Amino acid sequence: MPVSLGEWRVRIGTFMRRRRKEYDYHYFWRKLHNLMKKAKNAEPPKENNNPECNISRTGSSPDANRSPSNTTGQSASSYNVNLNTAQTGPSRDVNNGKGNASSPTLSQSDGPECDVSESGFPRDVNNPGHNDVSHSESSCAQNSGFSIEKETNPVPGITVVTFPVPQPCVEDELDNKDIAINLMSHEYTPKSAQISKTDKPEVDTSESHSHVPADVRGETDRINRDKEETSDSAPSGIEDQSLDLSPKHRIDATNNTDQRTSSIKEVAEYHDSPIYPVLGSGTTSGEADETKGNDCPDMTNILLLRSGDVEQNPGPNDKPGNLTDLELYLLADSMDPSDFRKVGLALGFNEAELSRFEKDQMGNTLYAIYKMLYEWRKRVCDSEAREALVVTLHRIKLVQLADSVQKGQVGDHIPSMTEKEIQLVAEEVKHYLAIHLCQIQADPLNSELVLEFKRIFTNLTLMEEDKGTKLKTPLLYDDLLRTKVNGTYPKRLLVEGEGGVGKTTFCAKIAWDWIHGKAYQDFKLVLVILLRKTEGKTVGEIVKSYLSDNNPVTAKQLDKHIFSNPDDVFLVLDGLDEFAVDLDSNQQVALITLNHLFKSGTVLITSRQWRSDEIRKNADLRKVFAFIAVEGFSAENLSSYITKFFHPDAASSEDLNRFISNNDVIRENMAPYPIYTAMLCIMWKEFDGERREAMSKLQTFSQLFNQMIDFLVDHHLSKHIPSSGIVEGKLGDHCSDIRPHLIYIGWIAFQGLLERRLVFTEEEFQSYPESIDVGCKVGVLTKEKKILPRRDRRNNPKSVVQSVQFPHKLFQEYLSGMYLASLYNTNRNEYDRLIANIIQEAVEYRYLLHFTSAQQKGVGLDIVSRLIALNQKRQPVRIGDGFIVDVAYESQDQAVAKSVADHLSTDSSKTLEINFNMQAHTVSGHTFIMNHRDVVRKV
Ligand SMILES: Nc1ncnc2c1ncn2[C@@H]1O[C@H](COP(=O)(O)OP(=O)(O)OP(=O)(O)O)[C@@H](O)[C@H]1O
Q1: Which residues fall in a compositionally biased region of kind Basic and acidic residues (predicted)?
Q2: What would you report as the CA-atom Rg of the chain, rounded to the nearest whole angstrom?
Q3: What is the whole-number distance in angstroms between the Cα of residue 675 and the centre of ligand 1?
Q4: ipTM of model
Q5: Listing from the earlier edge strand, what are the strands of the sheet with 759-761?
Q6: Which terminus of the chain faces fewer neighbouring Cβ atoms within 10 Å, N or C?
Q7: Distance from first CA to last CA of the chain, Å, rounded?
Q8: How high is the pLDDT of residue 443?
Q9: Which is more confident, 547 or 764?
């Protein structure tokens, strides 16, 4: 619960009465001043090579508790449709012999082998395009390609469907979004009303938050718009969505600009459980700092600080409390790397243990020291740790460090930022985010079509999970930071969503609102960090890279400022699933994610689901996180997006809207995802009548990608091939010239996925330099010039480096799938080796498996048989049947469907439950394979 200032004053009074000493600021300040002078004059400590270790060990439990991220399960709970399937046919003999490889390490050295001569691009079986396929497995190609033709239903079977619940629902009519509405708890009372709006600058279309009632106009009074925005006469839905979102509980943070101050607040930050009781209760892996917040003996300081009535650092803190994670972190940062072993030995570690710390942290001494200190702290009693560390540091003559630990002043050597510096940093961060984040690439494959944020941004449907029931209720964007979890405003928010549902764009929206003074104004800094680009850097280092060259603030100052002023900073970490680092690595961003650092600061993390399980499955983290799902566009917002996309061509937008509303599969499966809607808009715009007709046959994401890439290749060729080079009006030969490049790019894409890397260097393409060029021209790659910061230029002769990326991770996954499937024909051994490892991590590589299985029948069959085998072994990962059904659906091959149907019929559970949590895609998948099952329909 937020605590009012008045209440703080009462509490402070209580603590003041309990205090033993008189509070004398001048006395303490003089004392600190003298100590600092003394410290400066102190001789450098002499090294002691023979430390004796007196620290007694009390046992350790060092295991970082990394939740298994490799499991998933389609929720088998609940209601609605039961399709009881009776097994009639013999169980299919699935070939699972290849699915047993267990090595998780994938070779990254094997280049692609492109069987170019075998087939041209549009005709190749690996690219189930819209042209003829001269291959024995052509049925799949036809099914998964541009012209989609299904085989006839081989086994119609008996059909009896059960609807055991009061509200019958025919599976054809299942609408996930409606289901979501129905799932609204009846206890749910709208927190605020529907925002009636026109979510676009110029286009006259109304858009609404789906499922969100009534009006919150009254709240708009609180909006502090900047002048520019107020005078902007263009109506924008963004404005409507942009109320003052700052959490109302936040206490006005006292500026921490005094050069002398910081350490008390740093310590205080970690002892603030009375303010956020839920947050204070949780740490990861049962670590020992769990209850420190409540034990803090120096609560007076914290309360005084919180009250805003007093100087933040009234002098040395002679009772700095238990050693905090942040102190350990700053201590590691302050320590000379060459002291690592000396300190480690003195703390009781042996050489082997120290080497392990170094090795685990891959030579990063800061993290190795931190890890060592962290492990050491587990071995000693919490209340004795500070004293023990001080004694040890003194003994090995690290006097300054010992003193700073003793006084709770670790990190004070880094100058605090002045108010002016903080403001300048904020301005430059805003400038950076406005340019680099807040522009939407409306055409995922055309980096030139970048639209201003407010021109195209469209509201997304947000749902909040009730941790007890797992039911989701609608959440207003405006209530993002105002939603209470167990009566408390959460400081950690996990925003989950499928690929392309709009998570990154959602982060951009937060930045946009902060930049334009529409929300989050209680925060001096809103820092959006793309985790795919962090490369093990600290937050300060990342923010430093946002600043201009001549900004003198250092990364360390930024780090210190951020961690010392958690109330002033909103950290938005986008793409946990793209974060290459293990969460138990002790890297700063990982520590923040695990709630070890920046505990009282507000952090929003976005992720695809497979990785967010690392948070969900950790009992301690579950307590502190609020779980929010991004569900993409509602029907209304879809229509609004399309109108904005085609503006001012109202006829086209109406046509596409009509087309989507008449096409169940597209409406249910694709349109809620902004990225697929964007692709549909592009194709609709470019395609003529005949090709538009073909669009209506689209069933799967893979087909949509396939069409998109076909379209891009055609588009590229028509621009770059002189008309004299086109024989009989066909681009076929030229298309086949492009395919090897795409396969090669797919190989690089695949290597990147294995390393969770989405940004590449030009050098990585050096074996096929032409491919990068073709990829950029076609649109499946984008090059970005990056001007190196001045400090990095010393080590790099180039002042500008080129990074190469895919327009979106889903494109990287699609091209990886093309590469992997191509190996099936050209290098089966390599295919077997790679796919065996991928299957072991099936949940992470879900989209890759979808796209790969869609490439050709043999691959689809192979993948589902491996998945089935994996499920049957139940070791180490069990994926749900829904996962396999999804893969079968993407393959659009009847043989694959049959194989999965046989498996489901022989599986122990013969009842198909379609519940509210089931994705529309999975429901379509069940419908797809249903032809091969004998279904008993019970009413
Ligand atoms: N709210 C929105 N308004 C308009 N367009 C959007 C919106 N959200 C997403 N898009 C479009 O969809 C594309 C993909 O969205 P985004 O990158 O945010 O998805 P994501 O959930 O982060 O995907 P992934 O998990 O694969 O990284 C964007 O480039 C943009 O074109």
Answers
A1: 197-230
A2: 30
A3: 6
A4: 0.99
A5: 759-761, 800-805, 782-787
A6: C
A7: 49
A8: 65
A9: 547
Helix (H, G, I), strand (E, B) or coil at 605: strand
Is 421-429+462-630 in CATH node 3.40.50.300?
yes
What is the predicted pLDDT for the residue at 697?
85
Residue nearest to atom 26 of ligand 1 (CA): 499
Confirm whether 5-62+260-406 and 421-429+462-630 share one CATH topology.
Answer: no
Lowest mean pLDDT among 108-117, 246-255, 569-578: 246-255
| Residue 576 identity (one-letter amino acid) | L
d(CA 673, CA 676): 6
Flag whether pLDDT at 673 surpasses 50: yes
Question: Tell me, what's the pLDDT at 825?
Answer: 94
Which CATH superfamily, name and number, covers 5-62+260-406?
Death Domain, Fas (1.10.533.10)
Ligand 1 pocket check for 810: Cβ under 6 Å: yes
CA of 704 to the centre of ligand 1 (A): 16
Whether the CB of 179 sits within 6 Å of ligand 1: no
Sign, CA dihedral 76-82-87-89, equals negative
Which among 93, 115, 99 is positioned nearest to 835, based on CA atoms?
99
Best mutation site among 608, 631, 675 for ligand 1 pocket (most ligand atoms within 8 Å of CB): 675
Q: Whose CA is nearest to atom 1 of ligand 1?
A: 458
**Alpha-carbon gap, residue 352 to 334, rounded angstroms:** 24
Q: Closest ligand 1 atom, CA of 608?
A: 25
For residue 225, the SS3 value is: coil
Q: Are strands 525-530 and 569-574 parallel, antiparallel or unpaired?
A: parallel
> Residue 432 — pLDDT band, cuts 50, 70, 90?
very high
Domain spans in the chain, listed from the N-terminal domain onward:
5-62+260-406, 108-148+702-880, 421-429+462-630
Q: What are phi and psi of 744, to 5 degrees?
A: -65, -45
> Is 444 close to ligand 1, i.e. is its CB under 6 Å away?
yes
| CB of 515 sitting under 6 A from ligand 1 | no
Q: Is the CB of 497 under 6 A from ligand 1?
A: yes
Residue 607 Cα to ligand 1 midpoint, Å, equals 13
For residue 504, the CA-to-ligand 1 centroid distance in Å is 6
Q: State the Cα–Cα distance between residues 492 and 280, nearest whole angstrom.
A: 12
Is any ligand 1 atom within 6 A of the Cβ of residue 530?
no
Name the band, by pLDDT with cuts 50, 70 and 90, for residue 137: very low
Distance 505 CA to ligand 1 centre (A): 5
pLDDT tens-digit map of 304-359: 333 333 334 444 455 677 888 778 888 988 899 899 999 999 999 999 999 888 87
- Residue bearing the CA closest to ligand 1, atom 13: 675
pLDDT, tens digit, 9 for 90 and up, residues 235-245:
333 333 333 34
CA distance 351 to 361: 16
For residue 917, what pLDDT band results from cuts at 50, 70 and 90?
A: confident
Percent of the chain clearing pLDDT 90 (strictly above): 33
C-beta of 681 in contact with ligand 1 (< 6 A) = no
| CB 846 less than 6 A from any atom of ligand 1 | no
Decide if 938 contacts 163 (C-beta within 8 A). yes
CA distance 379 to 287: 11
Q: Which of 538, 513, 543, 547 is nearest to 528 (CA)?
A: 543
DSSP-derived secondary structure letter, 452: E
For residue 809, the ligand 1 atom closest to its alpha carbon is 26
Kindly give the number of the ligand 1 atom that is closest to the alpha carbon of 457.
3
Distance 500 CA to ligand 1 centre (A): 5
Of 203, 372, 165, nearest in space to 939 by CA:
165
Q: Which of 396, 390, 360 is nearest to 375 (CA)?
A: 360
Task: Provide the pLDDT for residue 796.
Answer: 62
Question: Ligand 1, from 236, 496, 504, 642: best to mutate by most atoms within 8 Å of Cβ?
Answer: 504
- C-alpha 707/C-alpha 127 separation (Å) is 10
Instruction: Judge whether 11 and 310 are in contact, CB under 8 Å.
Output: no
